[in-house]
Amino acid sequence: MARHWKEKLDPGKHRDFMRGHQDAGGMPIAAPRDNLLDVWVYFVEVAGFTFEFTSVDQICEALRYFEERVHPSTKGYNDGLEHYWQPWYCRLPPGIRAETKRRRVVKALKSALAEYAPKT
């Protein structure tokens, strides 16, 4: 059973795992300058894995990725960086791209997006 939730940003606890090519431990998230603004971190737990997103746009990016059934090779030149500097989709757990889990992930991401996307 998939579930999703959101938490207020805690820079000491939450990390951004999807920003560019970065360390596997994620990048720190800067707290807003205005402490009256609520900044949220979104979570989607499905197929034994918990995704952590710092914005609704990141949920959309992950949804676009998982809606594709076939993905190109991720092998490429790394510009001399260490081996652990990879895009977020290269660090997904094994088997999560398998068809049955992929469909569950797509369904869970769509559900989270329906709840958290701004209503226009």
Provide an overview of this structure.
- The structure is a single chain.
- By secondary structure, this protein is of the alpha+beta class.
- The chain is built from 2 helices and 5 strands, in the order βββββαα.
- It has a 3-stranded antiparallel beta sheet with strand order 1-4-5, covered by helices on one side.
- β4 (40-46) and β5 form a beta hairpin.
- α1 packs antiparallel against α2.
- The longest helix is centred in the C-terminal third of the chain and has 18 residues, at 99-116.
- It starts with a strand and ends with a helix.
- The model has no long low-confidence stretch (mean pLDDT 86).
Following the backbone from N to C, one meets helices and strands in this order, namely EEEEEHH
Strand order of the biggest β-sheet? 1-4-5
End-to-end Cα distance: 29 Å
Strand share of the residues?
Answer: 15-25%
Shape: globular
Write down the overall mean pLDDT: 86
Q: What share of residues is helical?
A: 25-40%
Largest sheet: 3 strands, antiparallel
Calculate Rg over CA atoms: 15 Å
* Secondary structure tally, helices: 2
Let me know the number of strands.
5
Low-confidence stretches: none
